[in-house]
Amino acid sequence: xxxxxxxxxxxxxxxxxxRSRVVGTSERPRMSVxxxxxxxxxQIIDDGKHQTIASVTTVGSKIEGxxxxxxxxxxxxxAKKAKAKKIKKVSFDRGSKLYHGRVKALADAARKEGxxx
Length: 117
Description:
Blueprint: H1 2-21, E1 30-35, E2 40-46, E3 51-57, H2 67-84, E4 91-93, H3 102-112
Parallel strand pairs: 1-4
Antiparallel strand pairs: 1-2, 2-3
Helix pairs in contact: 2-3
């Protein structure tokens, strides 16, 4: 049990460290990524107004494929929603996850659609 508690503690520490450096403004909102074992969620948040501008998730959707393929689809969808709201630049908040694998696939797909971060 101690090993699991240490994993959670270290993940929370990483998330707090990233979150202390990444702040969303109205000119450059924060793009928060949450990856679990089954689902991926992305929100574009204006921290000044405490408001979610756009969000996309795989929860309840019929997206097929591996988790990396789902991450790419979610990345393109969130970039399209951001373009519709006239957002071009965002701050990337990866949470406690490393910038590798699914998180990197999501970020690369969003960059291909025109988001800058």
